[in-house]
Amino acid sequence: MAAVQPWWSGTVIYQLIVRSYADGNGDGIGDFKGLSGRLPYLRWLGVKTLWLTPVYPSPLRDGGYDITDFTGIHPDLGDLASFHRFLTAAHGQGMRVILDLVLNHTSDLHPWFQRARWAPKDSPERNVYVWSDDPQRYSDAPVLFRHFESSNWEWDPVAEQYYLHRFLRHQPDLNYANPWVQETMLEVVDFWLDRGVDGFRLDAVPFLCEEEGTRCEGLPETHAFLKRLRQRVDDHGRDVLLLGEAIQPVQEAAPYLAKDELHGAFNFVLTAHLFAAVASGSTRALGNCLQDAQDVVEGCGWALPLRNHDELWLGDGHLIPQEVIQTIRVGLPQGQGHWLNWGINRRLAPLLNGDPRANRLLHGLLYSLPGMPCLYYGDELGMGDWPGLRDRDPNRTPMAWTPARNGGFSAAPDPLLVLPPITAPGYDYRVLNVEVQKQLPGSLLNWHRRMLICRRLLPALQSGSFRLLSCAHPGVIAYVRSTEAMTVLVAGNFTAAGAAVGLDLSDWQGQRTREVMWGCEFPIAHDDWYVYLQPYGFNWWLIGEVEVEGSETSSQPPKATAGEPSV
User: Fold this and answer.
1) Each residue of 209-233: pLDDT tens digit?
2) Is 298 assigned a catalytic role?
3) Active-site residue (options: 245, 380, 391, 393)
4) Phi, psi at residue 27, to the nearest 5°?
5) What are the chain's domains?
């Protein structure tokens, strides 16, 4: 008997920022009341897992990742009661909810830090954070926010010591060499699990511990704590997803996916290679990246984002090869002022110059690769960004719901809005919004919905094996996803010209091939199988139904569930 898969196996994760999604009380800021009212839309779209960026009390100097209370709800968003109502409603719609949990640091306004800076040196209260008399300690650890900080240390005049901050200076690092810190953060996990959340996206997991002479990333002590965290989660007696943000090469991120550690990790290297393939029209490096990821971690352990609330992370050559970075910088439209820290601060559609074909290509591959595809709110519409806003706010503007004022996000006066809605040509909320796109059968939104229905009806795309196929065309990538009962062929053309592609399908000799979306018949599989792909075109084909001489077998596509279109 096959092992029962956990609920996150092959799930599609929809990331949203609560304060930018839907305003339920008219104050100009998104909240849990507004989000609860939009759950039917998310169910209609077909996503199964919601990832909420931090919802905790915070001064919001870093989008909520600077936390002052790990067991509360920011008053702008509601309270614990409104969160409970939202969570109950989401579960009622068949969706899971995972919270962003920042393990590495707090806000400098957190009561722990205020006690620490006033407490005596080397006291238990002081040692909740990492302090030093010498700002040259851990000098091999790179400065992550190089455009904002010149050092990982900041002098505190009250404590009369330097404190470590791998992120911004107002985000002091917790001291995981202190048993109290470890136990207290485990109690935070217990708190939210007791309230019914289904998992956590663990922010910045490589940086928890420090050691002289290293980059202070992924140290054995960090993995030891994550094993404690996994055991604590398992003790709750239900499937809880632990998804790690480890911005590292796949070989260095893979140890987080040990059987007794995390369940998933983001594959940011793949993200960069997907964009580089679009920029260059070449898929050789992308194919190698896909194969490397599967060789290191076979199966569905990778979470697969295209864009998110941060910049498109490229790094300094440690994460992404320099030639890939250069390809992206030269080949993708970035816009003035959009290069931030280690990457490009743009949403998906502007990065692709507003071309819906490239959007469909990238998501068509994402939805068919092993792992957990991640869809950033608004990307299902092709939303734009707002250049010139502070830090990473260009990517975090309000969701466009209707052509009405403020895109239907809020009825509040404009100065009260959390951020301005998009009005740029080609991305104006009065044209590009959910209400309009729902009514257009050929819209990007309806395309995403159809693809998510197809994915749900094809188990091979959720949990099947992965096999890269040889392809002579330098701009085309092809692979198959297979289970015992089903094989799906995927091919994508990363060039702006049409591509005639020959594939060796001799392993399926004599079997029928038919396109998934509309059930159209293609030539019988053989060792020299040809197909034409449009510019930035892609397709999924079912392979099967052996041709029987003198008769025809059924080739009807799988039936959709009630109320949904046929695949």
Assistant:
1) 999 999 999 999 999 999 999 999 9
2) no
3) 245
4) -95, 0
5) 13-104+179-454 (3.20.20.80), 111-164 (3.90.400.10), 464-546 (2.60.40.1180)
